[in-house]
């Protein structure tokens, strides 16, 4: 097939992805008058992207390899639906040359680069060889074909520790390990290869010098089939955790105009080395003085919205127009940088528990209106389920403003106005991060989050009078709404009373286990007035619903609060922050059976990928016992105390459910 046949106008587009990016592509495709086809696994039958598309095709079971990574089934779905083109999104098969070739062989337009370009630039090792020829600066390292342990160890010794071991294929921090000492290398290689094989089907590794305290700079490029290639400025993605981006912004607050042109010119040379067609990103690492090429992503990036907001370009539209065979709408000298944009990734994960993924059904989904420079790109809604099979990202909150400080303020407000319940999210962590004084001052590097993790994930302060009043108001509002559906009643708490005044007690619990705290509140109502008694102090109290918020009066103070009640669980947001409370039911038992501390249980559904200790072994506190793969990431379960490993109750390859007992430890006497 000739290159010109790869690009032609089409009317029906299949999106070979799910979640946020599928919804994102559907929006632009529909605006361009295209018919859209979604694909889905059995786990995603009720997902938002399925509902938003004009048509949806079932691929297969929940596991990605049986659905979103199954090339044969996706091609069959395209043929059956009448699709003429395929957009791969990001992740899954987006950087698979095999998939791009399969589309071409089936007569489908692949919305992205050619298989040859993906092969040349998608391999970290291969692309580095190309960059050397193109004069693009590289981090010193090894990216050869020999992959035996001796060769990799010799390369690491030659480079000098610390080194970075990482998968040649793929990205997202998977298959990547920082190794600071020679005796840590062997275990890192085994782990990185296993994770890379599971995530990308390729366990080829490269080793390069690890740049301490680096910054991550990347340049968005787009090329067309007519020989035009432009860079749309740069993004800074320095705020990372476990090599995964958390906050992204554009332009980089680190570069001046001259440095910006230097790095963008290097990116254009890099993409020009393969006459690149489509959207892609050239990634660099900076040690504060020099900038080094690290890899190219031959696809659309998660963080592309910040580039769209500062350039005024719809990158998905440009991708589709390039796939039509059109020339780029703008030349390099016609592109203008406007203002500053910053993005935060909202994940279903628990920062207080080492960012463990959270699964379950979303009971509340509330995001701010997309006005005043705020944009929400989401792939979920209330009622959707977050499964353990895929990446845990729910949405992106993006803010634009004329200046960086104003954009940060706007992003923080957008995060504070985003409420997701039913699963645990990282929203409080994101708010703490973007408002940190050193982040505002741009005094950061890629290790910033890890160094400041304790402060960024610290529990909020104890609820004060306002928060307890907000909790009471939220409960009363819910009862009023329920009562309205049943008709008027003289017995409603906030309604007319036949005589006298009544009292009602609330007990709110913050936290779990032995460290929990209880807060008692007494409501007195009737006779046209209400009051709350908190810690022996009686304060006048009133509330009124105001849209999705509640206006609360307590004593002489008034405040707008937001709250969500989900059964006995309350989420309250006031000017003092976010608070989670549990309404204790004195008649409900409230006791929960807990698994004994000597049991190691699965925190989430997952697959056992490694056993790291044997029954009978003596373990120190924190010693690794086994590794689970959860949501495509490895989680190592460790001994909670020193003791003897009595039993391993699983084997490699087992698929285990949440709460399944995996091992048993007998604590040492002194433990």
From TrEMBL:
Domain Biotin carboxylation per the UniProt entry, residue ranges: 9-454
Keyword Ligase: yes
Organism domain of life: Bacteria
InterPro entries reported in the protein's UniProt record: ATP-grasp, BC-like_N, Biotin_carboxylase_complex, Biotin_carboxylation_dom, Biotin_COase_C, Biotin_lipoyl, CPAse_ATP-bd, MCC_alpha_BT
Cofactors, names only: biotin
Domain Lipoyl-binding: from-to ranges: 591-666
Keywords carried by this UniProt record: ATP-binding, Biotin, Ligase, Nucleotide-binding
Keyword Nucleotide-binding: yes
One Pfam family matching this protein: Biotin_carb_C
SMART domains listed in its UniProt record: Biotin_carb_C
Molecular function via GO: ATP binding; ligase activity; metal ion binding
Domain ATP-grasp: 128-324
NCBIfam families according to UniProt: PRK08591.1
Family annotation (PANTHER family): CARBOXYLASE:PYRUVATE/ACETYL-COA/PROPIONYL-COA CARBOXYLASE, METHYLCROTONOYL-COA CARBOXYLASE SUBUNIT ALPHA, MITOCHONDRIAL-RELATED
Protein name: 3-methylcrotonyl-CoA carboxylase alpha subunit
Protein source organism: Rhodopseudomonas pentothenatexigens
